[in-house]
Inverse folding.
């Protein structure tokens, strides 16, 4: 269908400047272009930690240019799932990020993976991601801090906004093991 073709066209990972008005109404001649700020960096090495990911962003010149990151971790294997969400401070930062990390391969661990940048969907922007995760099981006290998303103010980690309801514990039986290992560290 036309909608399916449009979605495929918009999520190809092509340079954001090359996207068209068909992309979910995100691009508009009236407002000067694409206003999206949240990207997904795919094909990360699975042994990357959240801190390694943050160190990479900062070392590549993006320190202070993002206000939300989330590197999902598999509770069973304690390995990252190979992708991360980054909300950049403005659409003007997106092109530089895309240029740096699309086809990125300068990992600090041996890996043949080649980074790929795509738009985050369906959530876009700081508020949407905070809303998505603040009541999520990943924010439950039993989840190790290193597995949780982070928010930043002026380039410094800030307290994640409080949940609007008590987060349920993750369903994974491996959370007990992961939480106990964090305490032992």
């Amino acid at each position: 269908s036309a909608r399916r073709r449009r979605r495929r066209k918009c999520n190809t990972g092509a340079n954001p400047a090359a996207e068209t008005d068909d992309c979910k109404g995100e691009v508009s001649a009236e407002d000067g272009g694409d206003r999206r700020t949240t990207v997904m960096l795919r094909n990360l090495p699975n042994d990357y930690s959240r801190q390694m990911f943050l160190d990479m962003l900062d070392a590549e010149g993006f320190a202070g240019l993002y206000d939300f990151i989330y590197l999902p971790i598999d509770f069973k294997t304690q390995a990252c799932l190979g992708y991360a969400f980054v909300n950049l401070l403005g659409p003007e930062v997106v092109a530089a990020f895309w240029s740096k990390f699309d086809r990125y391969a300068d990992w600090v661990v041996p890996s043949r993976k080649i980074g790929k940048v795509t738009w985050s969907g369906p959530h876009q922007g700081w508020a949407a991601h905070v809303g998505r995760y603040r009541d999520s099981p990943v924010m439950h006290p039993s989840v190790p801090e290193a597995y949780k998303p982070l928010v930043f103010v002026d380039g410094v980690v800030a307290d994640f906004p409080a949940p609007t309801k008590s987060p349920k514990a993750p369903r994974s039986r491996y959370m007990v093991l992961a939480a106990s290992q964090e305490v032992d560290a």
About this structure: Residues 1-31 have pLDDT under 50 and may be disordered. The helical segments are 2-10, 50-62, 91-101, 126-133, 174-184.
